[in-house]
Design goal:
With 414 residues, the chain is α+β, with helices and mostly antiparallel strands. The chain has 15 helices and six strands. The chain has two domains: 148 residues, 2-Layer Sandwich (Alpha-Beta Plaits); 171 residues, Orthogonal Bundle (Hypothetical protein af1432). Helix 12 packs across helix 13. The model has no long low-confidence stretch (mean pLDDT 91).
């Protein structure tokens, strides 16, 4: 009996042990299942990540292709006009140099008066002019032609399998088209020259030189009148924009002529030159920002320094055209003082050109007796007292004396 009870207890213990082992096995199985689910989830995430990475790789590859295309485009094109650049133009000239493309036409073009536009309005406006001309060239020539900007104000076109008549037609077409374009009231203009390469024996450099020489010949014959028209347009822009400047320029010109006649030392031609110098003396103000020219209050030191640049800008504008180059020096020096305290060069006494000394008096008197953005006009009596007081310091004493004794009376008569 005891043995049976012992066996039963032993069996029960074995059952309990097996039950515990089964529970452990079930827990392990449950853990393994959970681990499988976890690994499955991780695998899904990993697949998604891999898919995302593959998409990113494709995206980066596409971006790299686009970047390479952009880099290739930039290496072959001018950044401003998006025409071909000089490097590509010369490279294509060599590629074109085969008999099946003869005759090859070469057109060279130069923008007349770009420096005047840059001096008067700034390089941003000059860049706008170049873009407008670039667009006109794109519209004129065919896709097979190589239209390039090869320098600051120079363009060139290569035309395969062309004729002299076709080149002349293009010449007339592009010159006429550009003449219809304006920036800040200034008419744009191109000087053009062209030449052919008809055989392999002709040197590329010789063809380019011949086309360039013809272009410069055109520029020489037409450039002067173009620059003259540009200067007149700049003055017109300034005086149309500011009534004060138009009236001031006219009065300074008139007063200067009265002073010259009172001096009785000048020929009629010199007086005519002085009259023009008076009209154009402030043309450099075209470069001064509106907010400074129209400022109702006192200028800061920085703003006054900007105002003072108008003399040198005026000089650069006027000296660009032969017919006005003689006036440039007077635009430059009309703010010099007899005692050397003026600007821009600090010239003294008779080192200051005579016309500039005359304009200095006329300019000061008219400025004092006219309304300005920053003050109402002063009385004639006050202006006369200032001219008298500054004679020998700001003003040439002889010219100031002539003005006070002979010119003021004539001004009052008017």
């Amino acid at each position: 009996m005891k043995n049976k009870e012992a066996d039963l207890r032993k069996q029960n213990k074995e059952k309990e042990k097996r039950a515990d082992e089964l529970d452990i096995a079930n827990e392990e199985l449950k853990f393994q299942e959970e681990e499988k689910e976890k690994r499955a989830d991780e695998l899904v995430i990993a697949n998604k990540e891999l898919k995302f990475q593959n998409k990113e790789k494709e995206k980066r590859a596409n971006e790299l292709d686009i970047a390479n295309e952009e880099l290739k485009h930039l290496s072959n094109h001018d950044y401003l006009t998006d025409l071909y650049n000089r490097r590509y133009y010369l490279e294509q000239f060599k590629n074109f140099d085969n008999e099946r493309l003869y005759p090859i036409g070469v057109m060279m073009m130069d923008v007349n008066g770009l420096k005047i536009i840059n001096d008067a309005f700034g390089h941003g406006i000059g860049d706008s002019a170049l873009k407008m001309i670039g667009n006109a060239l794109k519209d004129t020539f065919k896709e097979k032609d190589i239209v390039s900007r090869i320098g600051g104000d120079e363009f060139a076109v290569l035309l395969p399998n062309t004729t002299r008549n076709k080149l002349q037609e293009y010449n007339e077409q592009i010159v006429s088209k550009v003449k219809t374009l304006k920036v800040k009231n200034v008419e744009l203009s191109l000087a053009v020259g062209y030449e052919f390469k008809k055989s392999i024996s002709e040197e590329i450099d010789d063809i380019l030189e011949l086309a360039e020489n013809r272009m410069y010949s055109h520029k020489t014959t037409e450039g002067t009148s173009v620059r003259g028209r540009a200067i007149n347009a700049i003055l017109e822009t300034l005086t149309d924009k500011y009534d004060i400047e138009r009236e001031h320029s006219q009065r300074v010109s008139q007063i200067s002529v009265l002073i010259a006649k009172a001096l009785t030392l000048m020929r009629a031609a010199d007086i005519k030159g002085l009259e023009q110098a008076g009209l154009f003396h402030d043309i450099g103000k075209i470069s001064i920002p509106d907010k400074i020219l129209n400022k109702p209050g006192k200028l800061t030191n920085e703003e006054y320094d900007i105002i003072k640049t108008h003399t040198e800008v005026g000089y650069q504008i006027l000296r660009a055209a032969d017919e006005y180059s003689g006036l440039a020096i007077h635009a430059l020096h009309h703010h010099e003082h007899w005692d050397g305290s003026g600007y821009p060069k600090g010239l003294k006494g008779k080192d200051i050109p005579l016309f500039s000394r005359i304009i200095c008096v006329a300019d000061a008197y008219d400025a004092m007796t006219s309304d300005r953005p920053y003050r109402k006009k002063m009385s004639e009596e006050f202006a006369i007292s200032e001219i008298k007081k500054c004679s020998g310091t700001q003003f040439d004493p002889k010219i100031a004396n002539i003005f006070l004794e002979k010119v003021v009376i004539k001004l009052n008569e008017k």
